[in-house]
Every structure is written in C-alpha cells, then in structure tokens.
Design a protein that fits this description.
The protein is α+β, with helices and mostly antiparallel strands and 138 residues long. It is built from 2 helices and 8 strands. It has one domain. Helices cover 18% and strands 48% of the residues.
Length: 138
C-alpha cells in the first residue's frame, strides 16, 4: 500500500512539473486570412498553419494582415479589413482575447494557450468566403 501511495505521489509530482514547465509565450503571431472553397493556392507564410486551415473545408488562402504581439496586457494588433485583436488579463498562458471589426465585438473569450497550438476564429466575409483570425504562440 505504501508503494502504491509513493507511486501515485510521484506521478502527481511529474504531472505538476510538466504543467509548470509550460511557460507563458513571450509573444504571439496574429494573422488575418481570407479563404474560400474555390481551388487555389496558399501563401508560403501560411505553411505553418495550413493543415489547420484546410481542416475547415476551405481550399484557397490569402494572408491579409499579420502582426507579432508581446504576450502581455494591452497588446493589440490591427489586421486590416477593420479587424483588431486585443489581449487583456494576461496571467501565465491565459488571457482574455477580444476580436472586433470596426469597433464591434465579434469574440470576447478567455483562453489558455498551448505550446505551438494555434487558435482560430472564422467569420463570414461579406465579399464571399470566410475571414479567419489565427493566433499562434511563438
């Protein structure tokens, strides 16, 4: 029984160590992408997130704007087409994220970033197709 308790305690310690080892990202990249179901190409600067974008059922991708932000309170990026992303309440790997277009909130959510795991938000583009905001830890 004592051996079992020792083993469980060791596993808990390893799990806690793994969680603590995931430090907050120093910065994040934010990209605005327009996409459609029509056959087409993807810009080379989207290669690192292309599999994720293709999982959305879209086939052509154009980068409309990009920015690198320090992962801290008050960091913001203007991306084009009136889109803006703002960070607040940053604590470790967690932050409140606000995505707006022309000062109208589209998304306001708390998220926990995981190392090298991009987060996407997809919106209808009035010109046709989709607009995708991609946030990726760096």
């Amino acid at each position: 029984m004592k051996t079992l308790r020792t083993a469980v305690a060791a596993l808990c310690w390893l799990g806690l160590t793994a969680v603590l080892a995931q430090t907050a990202p120093e910065s994040v990249s934010v990209r605005l992408v327009t996409a459609s179901r029509d056959a087409g190409a993807a810009e080379p600067r989207l290669q690192d997130v292309l599999p994720l974008l293709q999982n959305l059922g879209l086939k052509s991708f154009r980068l409309e704007g990009e920015s690198n932000l320090a992962f801290r309170d008050g960091a913001a990026a203007t991306l084009g087409k009136g889109y803006r992303l703002e960070l607040s309440e940053v604590q470790g790997r967690n932050a409140m994220v606000r995505v707006s277009q022309n000062q109208r909130d589209l998304v306001r959510t708390r998220l926990s970033l995981r190392e090298d795991k991009p987060v996407t938000w997809v919106f209808d583009d009035p010109a046709g197709g989709k607009v995708i905001v991609v946030l990726k830890p760096r």
